Amino acid sequence: MSATPEKTTAKTDASSPELKRVIGPKLLLLFIVGDILGTGIYALTGQVAAEVGGAAWLPFLAAFAVATVTAFSYLELVTKYPQAAGAALYVHKAFGIQFFSFIVCFVVMSSGVTSASAASRAFAVNLVAGFGLDVGVGTVLLIAVLFILLVMFVNFRGVTESVMLNVVLTLVELSGLLFVILIGFWAIAGGNADFSRVVAFETPGDKGVLLAISTATSLAFFAMVGFEDSVNMAEETKDPSRIFPRIMLTGLGITATIYVLVSICAVAIVPIGELAGNETPLVTVVQTAAPGFPISDLIPFISMFAVANSALINMMMASRLLYGMSKHGVLPSFLGKVHPTRRTPWASILLTTAIALGLISYVSLDTEGSVVALLGGTTSLLLLTVFTVVNAVVLVLRRDKVDHRHFNAGPVLPLVGAAFCAYLVLPWSSGRPIEQYQIAGVLLAIGVLLFGLTWLGRRLVGSERKISDDPADLTTKVD
User: Fold this and answer.
1) Could you tell me if residue 5 is inside a domain?
2) Transmembrane stretches, by residue range (predicted)?
3) Are the CB atoms for 143 and 128 separated by under 8 Å?
4) What is the CATH number of the domain that holds 116?
5) 139 lies in a domain?
6) Cα distances (Å, whole numbers) of residue 225 to 36, 65, 115, 152, 382
7) Number of domains in the chain
8) Reported pTM
9) Alpha-carbon span 139 to 126, nearest angstrom
10) pLDDT at residue 166, as a whole number
11) Does any domain span residue 11?
12) Residues 456-478: pLDDT tens digits?
C-alpha cells in the first residue's frame, strides 16, 4: 500500500516537549527483529509440532500472515499518529472512552507479565538442560521463581535499555537461531535427517485439520507478537511516517523466514514424538544433529539469554505502564510511588512481580501440560484481542484527517485482519484450552477491580487529583 496525503482538522500542542529522535532505519530494524525473536521460537516449536506434526512450519507461516495484515493497520496508525502509547492512544482517539482505553492498556500490560512468566519457565528448563541437571518439577519452579525475583531486582535497580545494548542482545539471539539453521542444513545435506517429515501432517485424535491448524497458529502467534512494541518508539524515530512501513515489514519478513526455516530443520531432524511437548526443542535439535559439536552445549545458554532479555523488557514495560496509569489517576495512587534514590516505580514493580510469581506457581501445579505453551498462548490471546480492536479502529479513524502524508492500509486489509484475529481469539474456532481464558479473565478482573477502587476512592474522599485525558501519559517513563 502506498502513503496517501491527508489533511488535518486536529490541533497539535506546540508547547509539549518532544522526545529526542535518535533511531534511524537500521536501529529500528534491529529493535523490531530483536523484539520478535525470543521465547516463542526458542520454546514453543515442539508444542506447535504436537498440534500439526511435521508441518510445524505452516502455523508459523500463518501467524506471520495474520501479523502482517495487522501490521498494515498499525502502520497506518503509527504514521498518522507518530506518538507513544500505541493501541491505547488509537482506541482513545477513536472512541474517547477512558475506561475502554484503560482496559486496552491494562491488557497490553498483562500480556507483558504473561510473556515474562513464560520466559521464566523457559529460562529454568534451559538452565537445567544446559547443566545436565536431573531435577523435579519443584526445582524447576524454584529456578523460575528465583529468575523472576532477579528480574525484579534488575528492574528495581533501574537498568535503562540503551540502543547499543539492544543491538548486542539482538545479535546474540539471532546467532542462536542461525546456528540451528546452519547445523540443520548440514544434517539434512549429510543424509542425517528425514525431510519427508516436513510435509507429514498429523493432528491430535480429538481435532480436525482446520481446528488443529487454528490451535497451532494461535500458539505460534506468540512468536510474532513483538512487532507492535515498536510503535511506542515512534516519538524517538527519525521521520517515522516515511521509514516505519518499509522497516516493520522488512523485520517481519526476516523473522518469519528464520522461524519457518528453524521449524523445518527441527521436524526434519528430530522425530515428532520427541519434539512434541518438548520445552527445549532447539537444544534437542542441535544435540541430535551434531552431538559432538561444541555449539550443542552452547545452545541452552543462548536460549537462556534470549528469554531473559524478553522477560526483562516485558517486566519493565509492564511496571512502567502500571506506574503511568497510577500517575494519571486511573489506578490507585500507591502504584505511582517512586524510590527516592533509584528513581524506579518500586510499587508497580512489586505488583507486576507478584502477579508473575502467582502465574508461574499456579500453572506449574499442572505437571502434565506445558507451562510455556499455556502462558505463551495466554499472551497471544491477550494481544490478538487488542489486535482485533486495532484493526477495527483503523476504519473508525478514517474520518480523522491529519496534515501529513501517512501509510494507508486500504479498505479491505483491516477487515481481514480483524476477522482473522477474532477467529484466533474465540474458543470454538481457535481450539485454545479453557485455562488460557481463565488466566486472561483473572488478569482482566484485577484491572477492573483496581480501576473500580480508584474511582470509588476518589468519590469517597473527594480527591482533586486530576485524571489525565491523554492516553500517551500512560507510558510515562521514570528512568
Assistant:
1) no
2) 27-44, 56-75, 87-109, 129-156, 163-188, 208-227, 247-272, 298-323, 344-365, 371-397, 409-426, 438-456
3) yes
4) 1.20.1740.10
5) yes
6) 7, 12, 10, 23, 10
7) 1
8) 0.84
9) 13
10) 58
11) no
12) 877 776 654 444 555 555 555 45
Quick one: pLDDT at residue 12? Answer: 41
Instruction: Look at residue 46 and tell me if it is in a domain.
Output: yes
Where b means 16+ CB within 10 Å and e means fewer, 283-322 reads bbbbbbbbeeeebbebbbbbbbbbbbbbbbbbbbbbbbbb
Distance CA 320, CA 100 (A): 19
Q: Across the chain, which distance is largest between two alpha carbons, in Å?
A: 75
Look up the domain containing 36 and give its range.
19-475
From CA 5, how far away is CA 240, in angstroms rounded?
15
pLDDT in tens, 359-404: 999 998 776 667 888 999 999 999 999 999 999 999 999 988 888 8
- All three cell numbers of 60, joined, read 508459523
Instruction: Count CA atoms within 13 Å of residue 359 on its CB side.
Output: 34
SS3 per-residue string spanning 316-356: HHHHHHHHHHHHCCCCCHHHHCCCCCCCCCHHHHHHHHHHH
**What sign does the CA torsion over 311, 313, 314, 316 have?**
positive
Q: What would the pLDDT profile of 267-309 be if each residue is shown by its tens digit? A: 999 988 888 777 788 888 988 888 877 766 788 888 888 788 7
For residues 2 and 406, give the distance between their C-alpha atoms in angstroms, rounded to a whole number: 8
DSSP state of 407: E
